[in-house]
Design brief:
heterodimer; A: mainly alpha; B: Alpha-Beta Plaits; three-stranded mixed beta sheet; 7 helices; 9 strands; about 30% helix; about 15% strand
């Protein structure tokens, strides 16, 4: 019985591996990663909604420091190699957005760099 | 008699049970509430009880441009002077041709209580925050530049070229209008605007116009100050002395 389970488990892993290869699903450089503000699958589906909500509260009502801020996302998820969420095929934002063919407007105005890295850079 | 005793015992037990469960619930929920507050940071919206303003004493204003440089640094502006470069604050020199008295003053968005830029904006991008700071919501701005035409102080700039390496706290981009934000990102942190902080002579006094005890209110109550183009009745948040 246990052999059967092991076989099933191996089969499942193979199947998911082939799916990733066939569809070319993006493998993301998630930066520091760790405990996110919400469940990752929920965030994949809803991040734009919570970002919009918080954006309006911040700009119009000055409510800063909310957990769904773009700056917070970048702080954790920018790559540890170049401190950015864009620019490479496996960058945290760009990876999925180019796979889904959805244009990101955010970074035409917003910085895509980890802000703590910029502060260090300035002091040098 | 025994019945009554039993009843009182039961109600006593129930009361005890309720007390314990309320206590346990409080202990269970409190850390969650704390975490929520921490995750949310500053949750309260800005209120109309505050009106931010500045009082600029031109008598102390020297021949320097430290306020302009500080603004450029804080907000990531290039500092260029070509017609297509953004200027959020500029030094203006005035000279009375008859008496030859000359003076210089910093000129920027006057953060009017009745801002003409907000009146003319067709999309609602130009708005006045509850605490009196006039801003552009660049997510809504379509770049029509009506507000630039309407502003009597020529305070607004249009971004003509794509920008790179913006400051994380000051998003700026091509195709929208921008102007002095009174360093809103600093005010929300409890700091004063970069220009006020940079002035070596403390010529720019920043404070709450609605608080009668604030330094700026006391000074405006006891000393003469004027609005630029007071005839327009815009009730500007910036006042000048010595002009």
């Amino acid at each position: 019985m246990s052999k059967l389970f092991a076989l099933l488990a191996i089969l499942c892993m193979c199947a998911s591996a082939t799916a990733t290869e066939i569809y070319g699903m993006p493998k993301l450089d998630i930066g520091k990663g760790g405990q996110c503000v919400a469940d990752p699958q929920w965030m994949r589906k809803n991040h734009m909604r919570v970002l919009f909500q918080q954006r309006d509260e911040t700009v119009h009502q000055g409510m800063r420091g909310g957990k769904f801020s773009l700056k917070n996302c970048i702080e954790c998820h920018a790559s540890l190699r170049d401190n950015s969420v864009t620019g490479r095929a496996d960058s945290f934002c760009e990876g999925c957005h180019s796979f889904e063919a959805v244009k990101i407007d955010c970074f035409e105005c917003h910085s895509s760099k980890r802000s703590s890295s910029l502060v260090q850079g300035e002091s040098k | 008699m025994s019945d009554t005793n039993e009843m009182s015992n039961t109600s006593e037990q129930r009361r005890q049970f309720l007390k314990t469960s309320v206590g346990a619930a409080a202990v269970a929920i409190a850390p969650g509430m704390l975490m929520f507050d921490m995750a949310h940071g500053k949750t309260e919206a800005v209120s109309g009880k505050v009106r931010w303003g500045m009082l600029i004493n031109t008598a102390n204003c020297e021949d320097c441009d430290k306020c302009v440089k500080a603004c450029n640094k804080e907000n990531g502006l290039s500092g260029g002077l070509s017609p297509t470069d953004s200027q959020w604050i500029r030094k203006v020199e005035l000279k009375d041709m008859r008496t030859e008295r000359s003076l210089a003053l910093p000129m920027m968005c006057q953060h009017c209580a009745e801002p003409p830029c907000v009146d003319v904006c067709p999309t609602g991008a130009s708005f006045k925050r509850a605490d009196g700071i006039v801003l552009v919501d660049k997510h809504i701005c379509i770049g029509c530049r009506y507000c630039m035409m309407a502003c009597p102080y020529k305070a607004r700039s249009f971004v003509h070229e794509p920008l790179h390496d913006q400051k994380p706290d000051v998003p700026r981009g091509k195709g929208v209008v921008e102007s002095c934000t009174m360093c809103v990102q600093r005010i929300d942190k409890g700091l004063q605007p970069a220009c006020a902080e940079a002035c070596p002579n403390k010529s720019i006094l920043f404070g709450n116009l609605n608080d009668p005890g604030s330094e700026i209110s006391i000074k405006m109550r006891t000393e003469a100050s004027t609005q630029v183009r007071a005839d327009l009745g815009l009730d500007t948040g910036l006042r000048y002395q010595g002009i």
